[in-house]
Amino acid sequence: MKFSAVLAALASVAAVSAETFNVIVGGNSTLTFNPTSVTAAVGDTISFEFHAKNHTVTQSTFANPCAQMTTPTLGIDSGYVPVAADATSFPVWSFTMTNASAPLWFYCKQTGHCAKGMVFAVNPTAEKSFTAFQSAAMATAANTSSTTPSASAAAGGSASGTAGAAAASGSAAASGAGRVAGGAAGALAAVGLAAGLLL
């Protein structure tokens, strides 16, 4: 029993020390992710704050930057998150890294956004750099994988909180990339569990 308590305490310390990266999607009405890439470890959370228009955070591959990853499994996808131009609060979608052994590649699947360079990377390498990934995205024709209306008429904040948790969670776990997370609640629960076991 003591070994289980020690293991739970160590897990809670790891969860508490995990870093959260905040990424702005479409800030200042631009077709950008800011920052364009992050270096994350297992347990870190990457949180995307969606600004005006209608964007996605969709996992792709380095070789095919403007198409959703389907092999070996379906990549994670925030789904479309429309935000009104006059919004004052912004919806957030996040995932937690469960495997940091290889780079992860993302793009906005809104028509034409990827081809204009709206891409993001987690743990890019010298061999597979963000610059090379973005150049490959911009070399593609306009993304025709979907046609979704503009967010100009959408209500701001309609997709607030963690989006698509049930669907994306299964896809993320299968790909080993990450899992959709609800923020600090998981870390606090782990700390509480560890404290309960130790007391």
UniProtKB/TrEMBL annotation:
Keywords: Signal. Coiled coil: none annotated. InterPro entries: Cupredoxin, Ser-rich/MCO-related. Residues 1-18 form the signal peptide. PANTHER family: CUPREDOXIN, SERINE-RICH PROTEIN, PUTATIVE-RELATED-RELATED. This is Cupredoxin. It comes from Heliocybe sulcata.
